[in-house]
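Quick one:
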Amino acid sequence: MNCINRISFRLFCLIFFILFLPAGQTFASGAELTNIVVKNDGENLFIDLTVQGVFTNEMKKALLSGIPVSFTFIVMLYKVNDFWFDKKVAGTTTSHKTQYDALKNEYRITRSWEETGPLVVKDFDEAGLLMSQIGSLKIIPFTRLKKGEHYQLRVKSELNEKKYPFAGFPWEFETDWYTLNFIY
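Output:
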């Protein structure tokens, strides 16, 4: 009986570490969403945001060696129901991708929500700023919202690829869900 208890305890410990250890490592990067602003132009709802704490030294080295880096931004809008499940009203996912061209000594940034095409900059700090910011991302037209109703905007950002094959190490970055409540 004593042998069975030891095996059960070891199995419990193993399952505990498998389930809970990776979740703690995912948020170890310290990435967070800041400067979240909800605004409008009279017809549509927009969001501005910045993600900070994303580019580690290892990521920068890998980027300079030609490995592309992609982030995804997830924005969901829900109608809040007090005594029932919230109803999803709108949602959008957008991505930012950057790649360094060593021959031209430039960064090429593609932001899926912009219609202008790739942005080209020479400075890493400027490229990092363009990668980490969203300005005036359209969420929903006001015609789809009801006046006086309670809504909740949920926002998250994450690295598209968790492991890059030639970098030799996993990159982990995923922010928590950030929420903003408002009444239209």
